[in-house]
Write a structure and sequence with these properties.
Layout lengths: L1 H23 L5 H26 L7 H14 L21 H4 L1 H24 L2 H22 L3
Length: about 150
């Protein structure tokens, strides 16, 4: 019985820790949401830029690095949407207020980006350069489509 009680207490402590972590990301302050999404976009840009340099011949193509970068973009693409909370169009941001007035379209564009990034990661794993270039261009188009509509220039 003592062992069961100890295991229950450990499970309860773990659940409390996990719940605390989730609560910490609900962005009570809009500047935290802005910083969060900007950080995610910065990491996406770094990884995407490196892949672009490889495809353009500005940097030696390395299939393993390209695949890692594509995996990173696919994982990171899931993050920014969480940071577009109500009121976070004000402050140090290039996000247009239109995001919140046309949230459904914005969400669709972000989901298309996530889907395209996942397709790019799969193409990179398979290694067919023709498929990789196509997937890269589709991912780039989904980035541009959102930037054109919802980001200040």
């Amino acid at each position: 019985m003592h062992k069961l009680l100890k295991m229950s207490l450990i499970a309860l402590a773990s659940a409390t820790t996990i719940t605390g972590g989730v609560q910490a990301s609900d962005f009570k302050k809009t500047h935290n949401a802005i910083e969060y999404r900007q950080s995610a976009f910065s990491m996406i840009a770094h990884n995407f830029g490196d892949m672009g340099a490889m495809l353009k011949g500005k940097k030696e193509y390395d299939a393993a690095v390209f695949s890692m970068r594509a995996d990173n973009v696919a994982a990171l693409a899931k993050l920014p949407l969480e940071g577009f909370v109500s009121g976070s169009d004000k402050g140090d941001t290039e996000a247009l207020a239109k995001i919140w007035s046309d949230k459904s379209d914005f969400d669709d564009k972000m989901n298309t980006f996530k889907k395209n990034a996942s397709i790019l990661a799969l193409a990179a794993q398979k290694g067919d350069k023709k498929d990789i270039k196509k997937a890269f261009m589709n991912t780039a188009k989904s980035c541009k489509g959102c930037h054109s509509a919802y980001k200040k220039d």
